[in-house]
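Example record

One chain of 368 residues, shown exactly as stored in the release files.
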Amino acid sequence: MSTKGKVLVAMSGGIDSTVTALMLHNEGYEVIGITMKTWDYATSNASSKETGCCNIDSFNDARQAAVDNGFPHFILDIREEFGDFVIENFVEEYLAGRTPNPCVMCNTHIKWRALLKRANALDCQWIATGHYAEVRQHTNGRYVISKGLDETKDQSYVLWGLDQELLSRTIMPLGKYRKTAIRQMALDMGYPELAKKSESYEICFVPDNDYRGFLKRRVDGLEEKVDGGWFVDKTGKRLGKHKGYPFYTIGQRKGLEIALGRPAYVTKINPETNTVTLGEESDLDKNEVKVGKINWVKYDGITDGMVSLTKIRYKDKGALSSLYNSDDGLSIRFHENVKGIAPGQSAVFYEGNDVIGGGIIQNGNMNF
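Predicted structure tokens for this chain:
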């Protein structure tokens, strides 16, 4: 009989989720493992191997760990709902000249909802994942996401979209540990092959990390529709032809295939005119950004001028900023210039290690 309640654990077959399941099992939780099939690799036509979340070997690894330790395991096929939302959003954002973060969209709208739905059906009080972050209840009653102890593995940035209902039911036990400790736990638990398992940092439905190729395969006739657009400078002067605006991102320098005699960076993308603006590195400097689709985590809102550390991309160290409410979201004013603000990416606001909230970058304004 469980002493701590029943928990549904998302198990990909990798080291982090497997150790999470075994750790909770050993602590006295009644564990049920579930592996979600989000994407059919065979449909991607990519050249590399399947990623860890989508192949039969990983499914079998997750199931074997459950069998070894005497708890049930299920495979859940969510390809249809994943594809309808996450992949279509990914394509639409690039076609709109923005740079999406599909992991944020998946966590916010698909994976946690799918987990919670099945947890309720299985009478589980909790859901658990192998993310390097922590969830706790603040003194104000709200549930808060905090950075994981291991700064090199911290995943709080991609979890800002989880609402209070989801957070109140979530356990993330790995947030208190460094990756080296988790690898040692896998060895101690008798899974040396897990400790040696390589990690994938690719998008699950783009296993070769070639998003341009994915877009071409996904959208019929895309190359013909967008071919022949122009690289321009900030005055609008044509510099040369490009291969299509969806194939470029803000801040990109490599792979432009244009010789200007100096380093050039993508500073603006205009899908309506199929133009890509190139400039110098200094042209990427911004100190204000508009953010929409806000989800508040630690508080249910902020007062104008609140200071936070704001991250504008996953591996960003963050920059001090002041937050201001606006009719359509927030205005973020950085205390010093930041580079490469890309519409479509997430801006996540931190107070110490705690996530205050986050949202989707709408635009990055020039200095004011």
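Notes: The chain has nine helices and 17 strands.
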